[in-house]
Amino acid sequence: MKISYNWLKQFVQIDKTPQELSLILTNVGLEVESVEKVQPVVGGLEGLVIGEVLTCVQHPNADRLRITTVNVGGKENLQIVCGAPNVGAGQKVVVATVGTTVYPLEGEPFKIKESKIRGELSQGMICAEDEIGLGKSHDGIMILAEDTEVGIRAKDHFKMDDDFVFEIGLTPNRADAASHLGVARDLAAYFRSEYEMPDLSAFKTDNENLVIPVEVEDLAACPRYSSVTISGVTVQESPDWLKDKLKVIGLRPINNVVDITNYVLHGLGQPLHAFDAGKITGGKVIVKKVAEGTPFVTLDDVERKLSADDLMICNAEAPMCIAGVFGGKSSGVDTNTKNIFLESAYFNSVSVRKTSKRHGLKTDASFRFERGTDPEITVTALKYAALLIKELAGGEISSSVSDIYPTHIKPFEFEVSYTNINKLIGANIPSAEIKHIITALGISATNTSDDTLALRVPSFKVDVTRECDITEEVLRIYGYNNIEIPAKVNASLSYSIKPEKENTHNVIADMLTSNGYAEIMCNSLTKSAYSKNLEEAVFILNPLSSDLNVMRQNLLMPALESVAYNQNRKNGDVKFYEFGKTYHLINEQYVERSRLLLLISGAKQSEQWNHNSKSATFYNLKSAVDAIISRLGIASYQSDVLNDENFAYGIKYFRGDKTLVSFGAVSKADRKVADVNAEVFYADFDWATLLDIVKKNKIVNKEISKYPAVRRDLSLLIDQAVTFDTLKGIAFKTDKKLIKEVGVFDVYVGDKLPEGKKSYALNFILQDEEQTLTDKQIDNTMQKLIANLTAQAGAEIRK
Question: What pTM was estimated for this model as a whole?
Answer without folding.
Answer: 0.65
